[in-house]
Amino acid sequence: MNKLFRILRHRWLDSRDSRRLIPDDMAHRLSRRITASEARHSGEIRLCVEAALPLSYLWRLGNETSVRVLARERAVSWFGRLGVWDTQDNNGVLIYLLLAERSIELVADRGLSARVDQARWQAMVDRLAGRLHQGAFEDGLTQALEEVSALLVEFFPAQAGGPNPNELPDLVVRA
Fold this sequence. Notes:
InterPro entries: TPM_dom. It holds the Pfam family TPM_phosphatase. Residues 17-150 form the TPM domain. By secondary structure, the chain is an alpha/beta fold. It has a single domain (2-156, 165-174), classed as Diaminopimelate Epimerase, Chain A, domain 1 (Roll). The chain is built from 8 helices and 4 strands. Strands 3-2-1-4 form a 4-stranded mixed beta sheet, sandwiched between helices. A hairpin with a 4-residue loop joins strand 2 (92-98) and strand 3 (103-108). It starts with a helix and ends with a strand.
């Protein structure tokens, strides 16, 4: 029954729910924050809010595959689809929210993930989850962007006077 309930919840939600949670004005403000952040480092940040998993993922539920594993797989899929892996310094980061499961994933490319331990990433996820649980979506996402930005500034600061191309769009993806 639990599997059926999850499938129904995922089928019920769609991109309208992502847009309702992150309306256009909030998405625009978050995009501007990404742009401002990327001026301080050579990394690229993408933010993706997805309402629900596609049915092809849901059929695998319960067959030794947990929702957590599926959410991570989906985040990695978006990481590739959005080209976050394809930055010059391998220092892109995806902040991914899966609304149907209230799941948060941070996916960092190998240039940054090699320098940041899992406990630090998990602490960021926990803080974001706390803010989202309080209903403070914009504040939580802003805090997450600032924390990711701080890591990128620490390990990949922008070079004064050097080139710092914007390799990926700064738009928030709402699916």
